Amino acid sequence: MRNLKRTLSLALASVMLVGMMSVGASAVNASDFTDADEIVNKDAVSTMTALGIINGKEDGSYFDPTGTVTRAEMAKMLCVAINGGVDPVLGVKDTPTFTDIKGHWAESYIEYCAANGIIAGRGNNKFDPTGTVSATEAAKMLLGVLGYNAEKSGLVGNDWAINTNVLANQNGLYKNLSNLNANTLLTRDNAAQMIYNALDANMVELNAAGNYTTSQYSYTGTESVVTGTERVWVLTIKENNCTDSGIKAAVDALSGSVYNSRSDADETVKEVAGAELSKVKYALEQKTQNVYGENTVTKYADETMGHKYLSLITDGDAVLTDVEKDSKGTYTLYMNGITTKGQYTKVEGDYSNLIGQKVEVLYKDSENVYGVYASTDSSLIVESTAGKVEAVKNGEVKIDGTTYKVDSNVTTTALYTGKLIDGLNVGGNKAAAVKAYDNDDNGKIDTVVYVPFTAAKVTYVGEKSFNTDVNTNVKFEDVNAYDDMAKNDYVIKSDAANTVDDTDTYVLAETVEGKIEATKSDSVRIDGTWYNYVTTTPDKDLALDSTVKAAVLNGYIVKSEVVTASHELQDYAVIVKTDEDVNGYVAKLLFADGTTKVVTTDKDYGSAGENYGNALVTYEVKKGEYVLTKAKTNSGDADKAGFDLIVTGKYVNSSGKGKIGGESIADDAVIFVKDSAGKFSTMAGSDFAKYSTTSVVDQNITAYANKDNSTGYNSIVLAYVELTGTVNSITSNYGYVTSAVSTTKNDDGETVSSFTFWDGATEHKDIMTDEKVSLSKGDIFTYEENKDGSYTVSEVDNLLRTAIIAYNEKNGDIRFTDASLNSAGSNVNAEITDDTVIIGINSDDKAGVEGVVPTIAIETATSGVYQANAYYVMGVADEVKLLVVDTYGNIPAVDSVTTVTDESNLGTALKQYTDVTFEGNATISSKLEIPAGATLNVKGDLTANAAIVGNGTLNVTGNISDTSKVSTQLESTKTGETVSVSGGVVLGDVTGNVGSGSALYSGDQVKGKVIVQITVPADAVTDGTSKIKFDGSEPSTPTLTNRSDIYLAIDMSQSGQKVITIDKDGDWSSTTNDVYTLTVKW
Prior knowledge:
Helix content: under 10%
Largest sheet: 7 strands, mixed
Oligomer: single chain
Structural class: mainly beta
Radius of gyration: 45 Å
Shape: elongated
Strand content: 35-45%
Distance between the termini: 89 Å
Number of helices: 12
Mean pLDDT: 79
């Protein structure tokens, strides 16, 4: 028996019975007319035009459904209908029957119908051919065609209209003509429907007693007869202890089955029970049964107008079980119980909405079907969902709380027309629509139609394919999919086996988003509407007060995700730092929404108090003070911190999307991050999961997960992690500074930076960072925009200055030179993709340029050497992550920057780049030269085990060990943190939070003059001869003693610098190369 298939509409929603009859094979269809949208009775119009009974107007291009029908036109329609759909060749009388039809175009049709008792005049011997027809008049004509005698049936005289309408209703002539006033003028649309209805009406004739009887016709058929007997084996299941529910049900279904031999029965049980055969006991009983054959006999059937005049046959007592679409766009119908032909092919209409119902088929042969309509014996008993269908008990079933009787031929096997669903076995398909039909008019359920579906979430959409969390690499050309599919869409999938065209079909699911206001054991209320679960156990994510986004189908939640959990992710924060001021204890907190705030706390959470460090905490505010509690980390906690699971494990990314402790990270998860530079931020799970395994510190992470109720899988929704690099190292947000960078204060009184930048498409004016940054006009940086409107910015790692020497716009191939800008050097072959960020600039005036595309660099006077015209950052494999194109075409070398992670590469980098950054603590083990014009930035401590020489600039954020190894020819400053030169400390009292003997850091509130001590290198002085100048002026006591210290009084209220010059022999002559210069900045 074929698998039940169903249209997508049934799988997705409760579809009402649409119309009793639908059109089949036809050369002309209602949809072919230009005014098709105005046609109401489309099935009837299609059939009438296909049979040639009604044609289009004028050139046939339009139908004019609201146009009225004249008496002459009605005469022609009936004449063609009773002549097999062919316009007959007819003659006329020398003396017309009616005085007003002579020479009229319809004269012959009127005469033919009058001669056959189908039509009559309107009195005074006139027919009135141009007069319009009412529905009652048209019904009278059709009743004449069916064999009713006007005199006998009372269709003449004063009551003719009443009698006509009564008889017309009895014969179904007014079916599907809702709100019809029989006395109003008949439209072409309604005329088609009335003739259409008449095709299936029985022909009648008067018998000798003067009574009407239904006409019959004979045909050759077959009947079943007993031709002999045979011995068979009947199987009975005695005991079934199978644990697999599917196997158990299949074994039970074998009881009562018949086999030709004992071995056939044994093999069947073995095949069905499989590994659980030992748990099954059964008996075989040999019986005698009849063998049947067929005899050819003459049979009789009721004659209809369609059969008598158009050779149309109506097959009845058949349940439509399947509809398939073929490659030519027509359909094949499969029927159950048809006495003549088991299937119909080349059918124009899609009748899948009638599956499961007893139907009648109007046809000439199996390839010429003119109509399929629900039998009058078939009716919809109840329409519901699979989850509300209970098991059959004692010939009854409860559906949606109401008990219905079930016919004896219905079993509890799921998923097939003619058998009833056991709602307990449909699992995640409880939301599927269910229709139960009575097909023999006894008020009991005979068939139940149900089709499974799959709910999914779209995770990727490409040009030719897409992925969901259920299926991957789904090609658009292989499925039916809706237009404008997008990532994160919820979809409902119907498998190919359940669609008319045998193709997997995806439709956009209905979604709701809102707060859960109330819950029950099997449902939740979202924004005033109750929705059922598809699982028997309520999902913990769907908790009271959670905000969720859910895909819903027929009142069920079939897929969902938590937008905000009931435990409120926004109640979590990370402690950035703690302190104490005049108001008491304070803490700077980073909140889940990415904002930071300095708050007053109820006690000291710093090292001298609770010592929370940079902990993940929950918080509540009491009397204006924040009370902090460390987040629970024990997976054994009863309430799991309000989550479904506490996960402890390492971060691993082996597939392109990282996991923590083996659990996937939700796209909308909140991830608190501390990077290698000590910066704190939050990011979405979808962004964090892109990090490689080595980008995250190799240590156990405590994370918090919730379970997806529709998939059963856990997803991380909250975590706090530490990175091995800067937080912006994977960002796709890049900017180019187009203004001066100023210093200002934010709302919390913190010192931050403000500037304007260009991102390649938009100029962001006067943005404010979340902390003070070291950027200048013309710098390139990465950024994240925080929810409070501030920006977290970082330097760009691995930014390389280059010349573009080849570019193919068609496939994105691009070639860069190395730092030498020579085409003979180590060129880099890469690819520009849709994900590449391209920023156009003019390096001459440091402005952004719109609409820039990669261009070939200008070759210099030296063959093969080019002017630098771009910066780039590489991404995964050959993909270019960032490309900055200079329309000026000549990026000066001073802007050449790079980041180095191995101290042994510093020497080479300083020869090729003018701005070199080393991330972390650096140890110099061999002599290192910093050339003039070059800058080395050490983001940590510097240990000088070998000489550091040159005339460049050395910036160190941490401490320098053994400053004697650092040449005084270098412009040596400690940038970012300390403002004193290497080795210097603050002496004496200062205004602010810096005490005597402490290093001075940026952000400290320092005002007035500060005494700074600077240790002079030993080789800069000799006994009694060395002299010193400050900014060109000698002090009153210019002579320095051996290894003396220099004390400077510096006004710290504004930034500045002091240039200290020391002459070893005191003659101020540079010819002896004994003059040392040291610049001190603050």
